[in-house]
Amino acid sequence: IDLKFPFRFYGHNITNVTVATGGFLYTSPFLHQWLTATQYIAPLMANFDTRKGGENSAIYYDRRRGKHVKKLHKTLNSDCYDNFIVQWKSVKLGDENITEPFEFEVILAKDGTIKFLYKTIPVNINEISDSSHPVKIGLSDAFYI
């Protein structure tokens, strides 16, 4: 997805990202099998499957004002201009017995700020299995050669 502004990430100007169903943004232009180990922004990387969440399960992105952010997160002090927002809504884990949905998002601001916002995290993150997919929260700028 093309960003409407260059986003500074570890000294690089990122102009597009790949939104992964697995709860993260992939920031490199090169696709390879190690996406979850290299360049990412992960509010909650896990084995999410949007098919398990039914009709309410979706991943949204917004390159504009992001009015939905103010509705979901009243504490956000931002005018929401010049942001890129991705929301994972009612997503469920693909290989777990956890039946409750997760809801969270990431905001990339034009000034380089990254915000992770969480509305519904039904279990302790440490309880999510990483046997079939990495479970991570954070940033990475590793390179694949």
Per DSSP E runs of 2 or more residues, the count of β-strands stands at 11
Biggest sheet, open or closed, and with what strands and sense?
5 strands, antiparallel
| Low-pLDDT runs | 70-77
Overall tally of structural domains: 1
Query: Share of helix among residues?
Result: under 10%
Note the beta-strand portion: 35-45%
Measure the end-to-end span.
Answer: 24 Å
Q: What structural class do the secondary elements suggest?
A: mainly beta
Q: State mean pLDDT (0 to 100 scale).
A: 82
Q: What is the global morphology? A: globular
Order of helices and strands: EEEEEEEHEEEE
- Which value, in Å, is the CA radius of gyration? 15 Å
Total helix count?
Answer: 1
Subcellular location: Membrane
Main location: membrane
Membrane topology: Single-pass type I membrane protein
InterPro entries: PLXDC (IPR031152)
Q: What's this model, at a glance?
A:
The chain has 1 helix and 11 strands. By secondary structure, the chain is mainly beta.
Describe it for me?
The protein is mainly β and 145 residues long. It has one domain. The chain has one helix at residues 67-72, and strands at 2-9, 12-16, 18-20, 24-26, 39-45, 48-49, 58-62, 83-93, 102-109, 114-120, 136-141. The strands form 3 sheets. Strands 6, 7, 8, 9 and 10 form a 5-stranded antiparallel sheet that branches. Strand 1 (2-9) and strand 2 (12-16) form a beta hairpin. The longest helix has 6 residues, at 67-72. The chain is globular.
